[in-house]
Amino acid sequence: MVGARPRSPSGTCWKATLGGARLLGWDDQIGSIEPCKQADLAVWRLSGLAHADIVDPVAALVLGDRPPLDQLSVADRPVAMPTGC
Fold first, then answer.
1. pLDDT, tens digit, 9 for 90 and up, residues 37-73
2. How would DSSP label each residue in 44-64?
3. What is the pTM for the complete model shown?
4. 77-78 and 69-74 beta bridge pairing
């Protein structure tokens, strides 16, 4: 793509969450973690050696090795996951 600027990991994350919700006109319901908003959440463990040298946690998720998934909830309900995910 001619003239395209590279995006930072944080900018890409914003575009995929709140930016997308605003574009759809749904930012009052989704797109950020706030009371009374709907959300699917994933929590990854970034405390391992593979992510020790990356200071920015968003960059660690985007650019680093795939971290283990600790928790996952969809529509405010925990999802059962096999051990070791």
1. 998 888 888 888 888 777 888 888 878 788 888 889 9
2. E---SGGGTT---HHHHHHHS
3. 0.65
4. antiparallel
Domain with 48, as residue range(s), is 40-80
Q: Could you count the other beta carbons within 10 Å of the beta carbon of residue 21?
A: 17
Q: Enter the tokens of residue 2.
A: 């001619």
**38 Cβ neighbours under 8 A, 6+ residues apart:** 29, 30, 75, 76
* Residue 24: inside a domain: yes
What's the whole-number average pLDDT of the chain?
83
1: in domain:
no
With a CB cutoff of 8 Å and minimum separation 6, the contacts of 35 are none
> 24: which residues sit within 8 A by CB, 6+ positions away?
none
Say which residues have a Cβ less than 8 Å from residue 39's Cβ, sequence separation at least 6: 30, 33, 73, 76
